[in-house]
Amino acid sequence: MADKSFAELLNEQVGHEFSAHQQYVAIAVHYDGETLPRLAAFYYRQALEERNHAMMIVQYLLDADHPVEIPAIEAPRTGFGDIVEPVQLALEQEKRVSGQINALAAQAREEGDYQGEQFMQWFIKEQVEEVATASDLLKVTQRATENPLLAEEYLARESIGDDGGDPTAPAAAGGAV
Question: Which of 10, 23, 88, 98 has its CA 20 to 30 A from that of 54?
Answer without folding.
Answer: 88
